[in-house]
Amino acid sequence: MTIKEFALLAGVSVSTVSKIMNGKDASISARTREHVLKLAKEYNYVPYASAAAPTTRTLTMGVIFQNTEHGKRLVSSILKEAASLGYSLLLRESGDSVDTELKNISAMAAAHTDGVIWEPVSSDSLFLGEKLDRAGIPYVVIGPYKGAFHMDFEKIGDTATGLLVKKRHASIACVAGDDSLAREFFQGYRKRLFDEKLPFRQELVFPDAKSLPVSGILNGLFTAAVFFSQAEALKFYETARNLQYEIPADLSLLTLRDGSSGGDLPFLSSLAIPFDAFGSQAARLLVARIEKWEHMPEFSPDFPLNTEATLSVPRDLQKKRVISIGSVNMDNYLAFDALPHSGRTVTSSDSATYPGGKCLNQAVGVARLGHHVSVIGRVGGDADSDSIYQAVRDCRIDSSGLLRTPGQKTGQAYIFVQKNGESMISILSGANSQVCPGDITAAERLFDGACCCLIQTEIPMEAVLTAASMAKRYGLMTVLKPSSCGPLTEELLKNIDVAVPNAEELSMICPGKGSIKEKAARLLSHGIKTVIVTLGAGGCWIFGKETACHIEAADFRSVDNTGAADAFISALVSYLLYGFSMEASCRIASCAAGFSITRQGVTPALVDKDTLEQYLEQNSPSLIKEAGRKKDR
């Protein structure tokens, strides 16, 4: 296209086109300049004289990178933005060589690029910009230099630290390294501490994950850590997890990530470094200078957080935590029209397997109702143990007290269920028989800061007694489910606050004649504060020192009643911790038990908090709004 043809297309004179395309357009209005340049880009118009005239626009943008890694992150966004603005790209890299950098700048001038985005090798090479000035080529310097366009890592460090402060952390470690960007990040960390009137402590600053002591979690040196490098954050995360620390329960962890690569590690909470936005803005700034825009584009990037997976408030401010101690099994279900009995063979066409056992069932129930839970028990050295650990992880339950036992089989429960929901259970103890007092003492740190301990008696009684004694020593409420056991010792009874047997179990722990009320009174006389006797479809009785109250069972169709007691105990404890009275908590627990019998399998049928409370709102609104309920649930 000739200049005359282009001038006719643009509706301006040949002289006007010549002045604009040769950068001699001071007398031309901004509106006319923008119109002509827009058409030139659309029609790829370049004057024939461009090769001979250094000031002629070529619609080419030069990019000189020093840091190859940063270049990879930025070049795609610069290229995309440049193309949208009508410019092609000429790319060069300098590495650490000032000599190469000089050659690159000379090449940009010789190619008559309209402008250059330039990342200098160092502050000492900034003088090379004079060569671009003499050639009349506008440029944008990127990097940590005065007047340069620069990614504000200080602001990112400030933002990251601020997120942890909002989670009420006051002891925050910083792992930042020693390059220029990491130092800026550290300054942002330090600034936010100052702004929040939190003390800066040099002993909480570390160069890498290796130097950050995992023991600092246990001794309270820090409750959170902010990392400049995602790779270093991952190293520390894996080290802490291998040592059975729970993140974020024991430590909150926040890092940065390359925003152009999306989630990267979605299980780590991270702020995106906006490299894409930065590259696009650099291109816009350069074009604004080339085309003499009246208003320079503003740049206010966000640093979006991908997930709160590794963020929480400090442990002493977290939700109330429950410990569940007892049997962990694989539940093997067989469904029958009628249960087998002596002299009769029956067949089943339906079977299923689920992680279970009273310890795990109650832990899952409490977790679904909104509390943090830790389990203490044993599994075998077999494939079933992997399924157990996966189930625990899926429910976000702390498994640091759940031990694998080589040479032992994971406990097995064989559950026979008939159509009306009635069931029979036989148990192979397996690794459950190996739970010992040492397992409890080894997990003593879990008792510190917990508020309730659920204990089941399908493990050796020495471990049960140790668990009850330790729970009382730490001031925890103790709730006992007596199962597969005989009379309980005086030493154990004095350490139990709430016992929840069914009628048959009550007869086993209190043998001899007497009514339910009389046997419950015997337990109360030994120091237990509350005895709750569950009666299946008959509801339950609550016995205290001077009170007795009967609670009706909730009306649900029974498919499998195996886990009703575990669901009851889970909800009982959960709502006691939410501030409800014993009677109200039992009424809610009866509803939770009702939900649990509507599906086969215990853990799949345990109700979650939202579902249970929606049911209560519709069917017992006065119960869920009980005045004794705490407001800060």
From TrEMBL:
Enzyme class: transferase
Binding site for K(+): D560, T562, S596, R599, G601
Chain residues that bind ATP: N502, T534, L535, G536, A537, G538, G539
E.C. no: 2.7.1.15
Catalytic activity: D-ribose + ATP = D-ribose 5-phosphate + ADP + H(+)
Bound cofactor: record note: Requires a divalent cation, most likely magnesium in vivo, as an electrophilic catalyst to aid phosphoryl group transfer. It is the chelate of the metal and the nucleotide that is the actual substrate.
Keyword set includes RNA-binding: no
Chain ranges of the HTH merR-type domain: 1-17
Transmembrane segments: none
Protein name as it appears in the record: Ribokinase
Notes on activation and inhibition: Activated by a monovalent cation that binds near, but not in, the active site. The most likely occupant of the site in vivo is potassium. Ion binding induces a conformational change that may alter substrate affinity.
Location (main, coarse): cytoplasm
